[in-house]
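Task: fold both queries, return tokens.
Query 1:
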Amino acid sequence: MTQTPTPIHETVQKHYAERIRSNASCCGPASASDCCSTDSNLYPADLLATLPEGETAVSYGCGDPVTLASLEPGQTVLDLGSGAGLDCFFAAKKVGETGHVIGVDMTPEMIERARSSARRLNIQNVEFRQGYLEELPVDSNSVDVIISNCVINLAPDKSKVFAEAFRVLKPGAKFAVSDIVTDGPLPDAIKNSLSAWAGCVAGAVEAKDYLAMMEGIGFTNISVTPVFFDKETIDSAIADMSDAIELKTISRDDIYKAVYSAKITAYKPA
């Protein structure tokens, strides 16, 4: 069955296509632009040091799934929603020449940018495939570790994403992602905003529901570690919403308490 794009898919795709067009690369010359700056809040210094000299890192994510995954040489890694490729490039360094990294993203501009960066940086053990997370272009039982960085929350059918992740993982394989979840329901004005979906807010589900979906698919040993945002980060995300949400009706305190990033790990039974 071929995945039919929904209005949410189309909005998210347009949003990130515009963002990547405004930046030179996920990895670019350090002097290229003020917007292409290293995000030291997301990645540890030892990981950033694996980038070639003169390169800086730009991430659209909310965490560091590469470190969370504890990758080992020789593994096959799949990045769900790989964007411009930054986490794939970090993962490629970790798994080494005997390993392989696959990035999947639905946005053509992201795939093109990631492939271009891989060629320029001469990273040979990585490939990028265009596709939807709900219908992964990846063989069953072929992946040792899945990573993802603030992307699953963007998917309108998360249960299908988890089912596909479970399908492609080998028995005993690991799922390690950073994602946005909530502790309690979001206001309707946020949930019904398409730009809030693109901004990684409206699509976030309650942590308990996220875990229930994963358990229902068959994942085991699920662990969730919350990482709360500061108020400035959430204010900035809300300010970026382009469809004139009536913020006067929304309690900011409710949003501050509800929305957070989470480090999530789980396993497919052996």
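Query 1 returned. Query 2:
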Amino acid sequence: MKKTPTRDRLGYKSFYRRNLPHVQLLNTALFLTFRLAGSLPEEVLARMAMKRRLLDQTLKSNTSESRSRFHGLTRRHFAILESCLDKATTGPTWLADARIADLVAEALHYRDGLHYRLDAYSIMPNHVHVVFAPLAGGTLPKSLSSIMHSLKRNSAKRANQILNRAGTFWEHESFDHYIRNRAEWNRIVKYVLENPVKAGLVKCWQEWPWTYLRDSAMKPDAS
């Protein structure tokens, strides 16, 4: 009988990388946000650096109070990030180019069933939201870091060729959040789909060409 790679060997465990919280669990849904390089102004990066220092300090003590504080800080950290990205007043907006958005969508779908179960995504002008569950028993099980490295590397190469440019395309840092239950999953997927509406790009999420929801995704009961 073929052995399934263990969680530890694939790196699916709680850890802290680049001063942002990252959780990796096999067969467990994750909410990820990754953005274009240079998509945030310096003053926002400074505010985020301060939030990261607070997160770092909070992680040093493993108490119920510190965990609650950590989750609160994480939410505020993400709120700053998302607000600035939605405004898109500075930095590149290469994903507004249909050719680039299409290739990113293609890259996300290509890995569906191989590395993860793809539940939903929204490709915005300067960032991407995606919900997926890394697969333990897939044909090509990989760690989250490996999945994201492959996705970013390949899409960046193709995008730069189309744009006739060189240099960094994606920001190295990304935000990811372990989805704890079905109710949270429903809330986050709704948030992802409605991001183009919130940003004022369309009136309903179905009008945005680069949103996706798995056909059966919303059918199971919330828990």
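Both queries returned. Flag for query 2: Residues 19-213 form a domain with the Alpha-Beta Plaits fold (CATH 3.30.70.1290).
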